Amino acid sequence: MKGGENLLLALIDQRVLSAISGLKGVYRAGVIATSPLTVQPRALTEDGKKQTAVRNVGQLDFASFIKGAEARPLKLGDEVLVAVVSDGTSTFQKGKDYRADPYRANSIDSSIVLGVIK
Fold first, then answer.
1. Is the separation of the CB atoms in 91 and 70 below 8 Å?
2. Predicted TM-score of the model (pTM)
3. CA 18, CA 66: separation in Å to the nearest integer?
4. Cys staple from 71: which of 39, 46, 62, 84, with CB 3.0 to 4.6 Å?
5. In the 3-class helix/strand/coil scheme, how is 13-65 assigned residue by residue?
């Protein structure tokens, strides 16, 4: 150990980096199942392996964006853009207010498909 070197600061930096490196906002994925909607993130882990697939993913109502037409359903192999809700939505019920779970903040389980990437 070098004289005067503060190892605590290095440890704190490492812990902060470790904590924030797993946060996802938006990620690319492929649809691998439609019922329940399951996506496979395209980014590989540091050792080159596939990440765990995400099941029961939410989906925007694409048909509400199109007047006088019907949106095509997602199909296997679609390349999609997925967002992670930062609140942790384990207690969410449609149309109701919910209590955010601070221990599930930025959980990949709170993923919602935003659309298909062309």
1. no
2. 0.71
3. 42
4. 62
5. HHHHHHHHHCCCCEEEEEEEEECCEEEEECCECCCCCECCCECCCEECCHHHH
